[in-house]
Design a protein that fits this description.
binds pyridoxal-5'-phosphate; 36% helix; globular
């Protein structure tokens, strides 16, 4: 079987002989030391040795424009994050079993970005751990086990989270206590049908199905921008009806903010806020420490009251002093550099540029986005909307040869995943649009 199985834009090690000798050597060393689980991006992998701002540099010093990486979200190697981490590392790096103000200052600061009802935070190291913890809290609170997720969702890698991540492919079974619903896809919804209403109906159907199988409903978790379902941000507000159904039926709603969170979508700090809903919990990670492993669950305190008292929970590295310092610097930079505003402005600029660049292209079905998270969806036929993942992948690989980093997403991998760091400037956007246009012409 191909080593890229079930991964969009994965490098097939069977093609290692086609790449430069120094890459072949590194690929062989990876296979020897790391085994087969680690996948590289692209038909022609990239070898980076340093990064700064919105560029990564290869071993020859050639810059690549980063239009993909959402972890170094305030920019690669941001000096304020580096300084905060260095300072903390030389002062104290400890855990949550001693008193210290910094974690409390950060907790207060983070919670001030949430609705008042969501006033407790628990720290972990990864998004997966946060989703895992949120699932445990939901199960403890509702006494149910059943979860609802979207058909191509990804929420992480622990055993229980993998069971709610259908995008991982047929060798990672979806749990028997898990029901999948169709993602709310405005582009593929019949005209005249309300996206939110259709989604809410499917959620209701899924809860009924769980109950018919004797499974008590615990909750629904969705990535509030539906990244792996193809990036589905519109129309803002479509989640409201489904969340109401979840609550009416006694479940909890968990907003997965790992992708949309920390100002990426431009008009709000968190993806759920665009939908005018109040989650019971939100999970976040990736951009939280700009590369340092810090993640969290923000919850209504009534959910943690009993769980926190009865269930022993200690996470050795979760909330350690150095990661907290990085996370504080990230929040400060988002505010001081007005990155949410930049995300909105540059997002609109890039969206317009992409629409202009693709308007006469017969394979572009839809161009959409919210802030600095955008997608161009390729189809074989605009009427049937049959997904064209092959073309999207060719474009991703051709852009890599032209030194622009993006990837693809969605069922069929037919939507370009465009997700630059938040300090992307107008000059960066023009550079991207210009190369995008030329590359699209080259391969069409
Ligand atoms: C929506 C979403 N949730 C959860 C996760 C898991 O986060 P991590 O890789 O930090 O465990 C990811 C990672 O890609 C994600 O995209």
């Amino acid at each position: 079987m191909s080593s890229t199985a079930f991964m969009v834009n994965g490098f097939d090690v069977a093609n290692a002989h086609k790449v430069e000798p120094h890459m072949q050597e590194l690929i062989a060393r990876r296979a020897k030391a790391l085994g087969p689980s680690y996948k590289l991006f692209y038909e022609h992998p990239v070898h980076f040795v340093r990064a700064e701002g919105v560029y990564l540099y290869d071993a020859d010093g050639t810059p690549y424009l980063d239009v993909y990486n959402n972890v170094p979200s305030v920019g690669h190697c941001h000096p304020r994050v580096i300084e905060a981490v260095n300072k903390q590392m030389t002062t104290l790096n400890s855990h949550t079993r001693y008193l210290n103000e910094r974690i409390l200052d950060y907790a207060d600061d983070l919670l001030s970005t949430f609705p008042a009802e969501m006033s407790n935070v628990m720290f972990t190291c990864t998004g997966s751990e946060s989703v895992d913890l949120a699932m445990r809290i939901a199960r403890f609170h509702t006494k149910g086990t059943g979860f609802i997720v979207t058909r191509n969702a990804y929420h992480g890698i622990t055993a229980s989270v993998a069971e709610i991540s259908p995008t991982m492919g047929p060798y990672v079974p979806v749990g028997q206590h898990v029901q999948m619903v169709e993602a709310p896809d405005a582009y593929r919804t019949e005209p005249g049908v309300d996206v939110g209403e259709a989604f809410a109906k499917d959620v209701e159907r899924a809860i009924n199905d769980l109950e018919r199988h004797g499974i008590r409903f615990a909750g629904m978790i969705v990535d509030t921008v539906f990244s792996t379902d193809g990036l589905l941000p519109h129309p803002a507000g479509f989640l409201k009806k489904a969340v109401d159904v979840v609550h009416q039926r006694g479940g909890l709603f968990i907003a997965d903010e790992v992708q949309p969170g920390f100002a990426r979508l431009g008009d709000s700090m968190w993806g759920f806020q665009r939908h005018g809903i109040l989650p019971d919990m939100a999970v976040m990670g990736k951009p939280m420490g700009n590369g340092l492993p810090i993640a969290a669950v923000v919850a209504k305190p009534e959910l943690l009251a009993e769980f926190g008292n009865k269930v022993r929970y200690f996470n050795t590295f979760g909330g350690n002093s150095v990661c907290i310092a990085a996370a504080q610097a990230v929040l400060d930079v988002i505010r001081d550099e007005k990155l949410m505003e930049n995300s909105k402005r540059m997002g609109e600029y890039i969206l317009n540029g992409l629409r202009e660049a693709t308007e006469s292209h017969p394979g572009v079905g839809d161009v959409r986005g919210a802030g600095l998270y955008l997608a161009v969806e390729f189809v074989k036929d605009k009427k049937t909307k049959e997904r064209d993942g092959e073309f999207a992948l060719r474009l991703v690989n051709a852009l890599r040869e032209n030194r622009v980093l993006i990837s693809a997403t969605g069922l069929g991998g037919n939507s370009l995943k465009i997700r630059p760091p938040l300090p992307f400037t107008k000059a960066n956007s023009d550079e991207f649009i210009d190369i995008f246009k030329k590359t699209l012409e080259q391969i069409s």
